[in-house]
Design goal:
This protein is α/β, with parallel strands linked by helices and 607 residues long. Helices cover 55% and strands 7% of the residues. Strand 3 and strand 4 form a beta hairpin. It is elongated and about 95 Å long.
């Protein structure tokens, strides 16, 4: 029965009967249902439909003689509402294939399509168990395969068609062979088996259904096709605004991510159903960028930082990102869309140099700059990323020299380290960093201009403030281990006398000389100090810390100080320093060591 253009209740049998293509638009997310949704759907179909049907035909002979007419009668009595599917009919010059874009209902229609395909596969595996298997297979295959001339693109045989890394595994599940298609090379690039939800769902559902018998599998597939009712909502391209409806669905509890909304808005001026150019741009620029940065969450973080450059403050998360972009780009032409998509793709490598500077594939070509980026990243001061991204972008464009970029990044590192050691507030960072580069890039002395801005915004940390905090505040915090390692490693490097540095990856465990938890021997050793209210803070200060290997850390444990220091190796300058200290290891000794170390810190992180 042909699908008409009226709002009505439909079954999946009606949707999949004729040659048809339900295309998941490029701006939609990839298939993303999780185990919770999969389990609920399969369990509901079994418990609320199939069990009742089999109760009504409990007699073995009735089951063996079950006709399609009798099964349909039983299934008609077990209708279940399965949500809405909102579609827009596509202008299609191919009379053999009616095509719809799925505006909402992607997860539902994809799941049902895959379940029918899985039932076919399991019936093929059990073909020797029943002479009816092949009849059932022939009945069901018509619902998952378009029988038509593929015209050089086997994907035309799919009834549910995506282009986000899902099309390839879907085809493979149904046809068990690679498609002949001009889209195959890009699809293989976009397909990541370890993270693909089509594969994950198929594996989950296979385990759930493999114990079903031949009749149970057929009844299960018929329940899906005949008992699950959806509300079919077709849009009229001339009358309805798919973009507004797409966004409106998000407001009515059908959540769409900021990335999906942005994608829809960005690509709207580029859509051309004749040339399909927007699809190749979407795959080559947008999807590859998401993959390159490590997924949608990281991509949203990247876009927040990129779009915040030269803004009064950092752009917010989620829907705020989309709203800000839309308000800033109200008149969005085709050329502007091209430019913005290219800007997004072109700056991904720079962003990765900032957030993954230790990854060899993301390393900045200038070693000095890369080392600074590694140290900045270890401060976890992510509010500075718009500024760093702006610096790297201007350097790449030739508007900043590498020398100036290194000077600017070094001052940034000093600012971040000093303020973090002093435990100063970061609330100003979101308004300070996004537009900072515009205030200093035109100045002949960029270092002075940067420092002037730091002073103007009352972010400056004097040597005296830094020294006091370094000696008196707790440096060690369980949530800031990378930062603590950075401080200890930089000081250790400065204390090394022979110029040859140890392998810090092998001595990266932070050791408390006076243990964090004191045993009876340490309590007796400290006497009254063991109950001093300031002891916890002093124990976590720089004077009580050093770097050793994990094995050494386990070995020395809560040993007394004299035994500990004799167990320390000479690899680290910080442990060598401890080995020559002869005083009793108490609060006074720890403060003295902090004061001894602070001069090196002032030199390392100097203005």
């Amino acid at each position: 029965m042909p699908i008409d253009n009226s709002i009505n209740n439909r079954t999946f049998e009606e949707l999949f009967t004729n040659p048809i293509s339900f295309e998941i638009p490029f701006f939609q997310r990839a298939y993303s249902w999780e185990r919770q949704q999969w389990k609920q759907l399969i369990d509901d179909i079994w418990e609320q439909i199939i069990m009742d049907v089999f109760e009504q035909i409990s007699n073995k002979n009735d089951r063996e003689e079950l006709t399609m007419e009798k099964l349909e009668k039983h299934l008609f009595e077990h209708e279940h509402y399965f949500g809405a599917i909102v579609v827009l009919e596509k202008t299609n010059s191919d009379p053999a294939l009616k095509s719809f874009s799925v505006i909402d209902g992607q997860q539902r229609i994809t799941t049902i399509y895959l379940l029918i395909a899985l039932a076919v596969q399991l019936l093929k595996e059990k073909a020797n168990l029943s002479e009816k298997s092949q009849k059932y297979i022939n009945t069901l295959e018509g619902f998952i395969k378009n029988s038509l001339d593929p015209k050089g693109d086997d994907y035309r045989k799919l009834k549910v068609y995506s282009n986000k890394g899902d099309r390839y595994p879907t085809y493979m599940k149904i046809f068990s062979e690679n498609p002949e298609s001009p889209s195959l090379p890009i699809d293989i690039q976009l397909y990541v088996k370890e993270f693909n939800k089509i594969d994950a769902f198929w594996n989950y559902a296979y385990k759930k259904l493999k114990s079903y018998g031949v009749l149970e599998l057929f009844v299960f597939s018929q329940a899906i096709l005949k008992s699950l009712k959806i509300v079919w909502i077709p849009l009229d391209e001339k009358r309805d605004n798919p973009q507004a409806i797409f966004e409106g669905l998000n407001d009515k509890g059908m959540p769409l991510s900021a990335i999906e909304l942005l994608c829809s808005y960005l690509f709207k001026p580029l859509i051309d159903d004749v040339t399909k150019q927007h699809e190749s741009i979407h795959n080559d620029k947008w999807l590859k960028s998401i993959k390159k940065v490590g997924g949608e969450d990281n991509f949203e973080f990247y876009l927040r930082n990129l779009f915040s450059i030269n803004k009064p403050k950092m752009i917010g998360k989620g829907r705020k990102l989309y709203a800000n972009f839309k308000n800033t780009n109200k008149q969005f032409s085709k050329q502007l869309a091209f430019d913005k998509i290219n800007e997004i793709a072109d700056n991904i490598d720079l962003f990765n140099q900032i957030v993954k500077p230790q990854d060899p594939s993301c390393k900045h070509p200038n070693n000095e700059i890369n080392n600074l980026l590694i140290k900045i990243e270890r401060t976890s001061m992510y509010s500075s990323i718009p500024f760093i991204l702006a610096v790297l972008r201007e350097q790449k464009a030739g508007n900043l020299t590498e020398a100036d970029s290194a000077i600017i990044l070094n001052i940034l590192l000093v600012l971040l380290v000093r303020r973090k050691v002093c435990e100063l507030k970061t609330t100003k960072y979101d308004v300070f960093f996004p537009s900072l580069l515009t205030k200093i890039i035109g100045e002949p002395d960029k270092a002075k201009a940067f420092k002037d801005q730091i002073t103007k915004e009352d972010l400056w940390v004097s040597n005296q403030e830094f020294e006091n905090a370094f000696i008196n505040k707790s440096l060690y915090k369980q949530t800031e281990l990378e930062f603590v390692r950075l401080i200890l490693q930089e000081i250790d490097k400065r204390m090394q006398s022979h110029g040859q540095l140890p392998d810090y990856s092998s001595i990266n465990t932070i050791e408390h000389v006076m243990p964090q938890t004191l045993d009876d021997e340490w309590m007796a050793y400290l006497g009254d100090e063991a109950n001093d209210l300031n002891l916890e803070r002093v124990k976590n200060s720089i004077g009580n810390l050093c770097l050793i290997s994990r094995a050494a850390n386990s070995f020395v444990g809560q040993d007394p100080f004299e035994k500990k220091k004799n167990s320390y190796t000479d690899v680290s300058a910080l442990t060598r320093d401890l080995k020559v200290r002869t005083d009793k290891w108490n609060m006074q000794a720890i403060k003295k060591r902090s004061k001894d170390i602070v001069e090196r810190a002032l030199d390392i992180w100097s203005w």
